[in-house]
Amino acid sequence: MDRNYDLIRQAEEMFKKYKDVVNEDEYRLHFHLMPPVGLLNDPNGFIQWQGRYHLFYQWNPFQTAHGAKFWGHYSSSNLVDWRKEKIALAPSEWYEKNGCYSGSAVEDNGILKLLYTGNVKDEYGNRETYQCLAESENGVDFIKKGVVLRLPEGYSAHFRDPKVWKRNEKWFMVIGAQTKQLEGRAVLFASNNLEDWTLIGDVAGTNLNGLQNFGYMWECPDLFRLGDNDILLVSPQGLQRTGMLYQNVYNTGYFIGTLDYETGKLEHGNFQELDRGFEFYAPQTTVDEKGRRLLFGWMGVPEQDEDLHPTISHHWIHAMTIPRELKLVNGQIYQNPVEELKKLRRNKVSKNNAIVHEEKKTFASFEGTAYELLINIHEIKAEAFEIILKDSVWIIYNKKECVFTLERKSMKTGEPEIRQCKLSNLSIIQIFVDTSSIEIFLNDGQEVFTSRMFPSVKNPNITFGSYHGKVLCSIQKWDLHQQ
Length: 483
Ligand code: FRU
Prior knowledge:
By secondary structure, this protein is mostly beta strands. Helices cover 4% and strands 52% of the residues.
């Protein structure tokens, strides 16, 4: 039987077999994209094509563990209501037999084209990597065109995740790589037809441009214009924890600079972490018809307690973040939830000029399971301000020390664990809580904390507290759900 057909049929069978078990999980999210069954990781091929948004994702339908990935597919007219589409890619060919790994989508003369990595491993675990092309005329049925780029000299087989864009009628592609000396790199290629690619050079990486000890492998690079700058967004593996930075097993951040398209080199400033939460990795952006730079991230981190997620007993794991819009403000990327998410708002409650004074208190009707909480802080005349959700997630702003903290119970030990950032002032806290996730946007997107959480879903509590003084704020809350 045709291998592609067979794999797709097997994946669909998994979906049918576990559909009810998956949907019965109380931790199933209400307004996030999830795998129908099995494991989801990176967002792939994010594009607005012929008016419609398409988001593909790394997907193992057979297990709640990593493996030979498929490309699952969702589409939407408004970034809020998503439709599950047919499986886009299955790892059926020799050049991708161990996974259709991450990649991106472009529009070329009306055709939707996917560039992705074919991952191959032999019986001894030796890896091969191929950059591949697939095309679709209708946006849902893809025809594979095979390998368009083989591994160049000087790099190990950890060479993957092509992100492609067009500039002045020419195609460019950045790939995540590791040199033979085990240095993480992003590498630039150019092409006139998406099929014949020429290596231009290394964009950035360990031992380039003054960067030392900056990871042994760079995954999922993305290169785009924001304002008057070129941004390299990338997920380096092998960063050392330093202070409040790089606390997760693998981390994601960006460089702001200017790309020289002749040499491929990015003149850049410091690496800045994009998200400060426990679960965030391998984001991908696209620019839509409104000219917005939009981002989806994976709400997970490879090898970080993945086997401890309670959703595994319901045969699924991981989810995407909510879609965000990026802006550059004072040399920093600000991320905000896309405006369209307001469409999910239901049952508004508000409390103007609320006072929290050396106490822990709740406000009538401020509770829920899937909601948006918007807090405008008028004045903090206290050492610290605190919000406790579901009696198990603590959000604390220590004004005295200018430190913001997210605290939860470790999935491994049950002990408290924290993620933090420095924040010299706090005026707005916008929180998106879903049944098992939290995304916190501070000061209109200046800092973001994305995390999964697995408290008792039925616990609806939202508690406010202040220490050594009082806090004056106005609070709004909406339940969030699809119509
Ligand atoms: C990042 C990553 C990519 C790879 C994909 C495989 O999470 O490791 O580098 O293409 O996941 O699923």
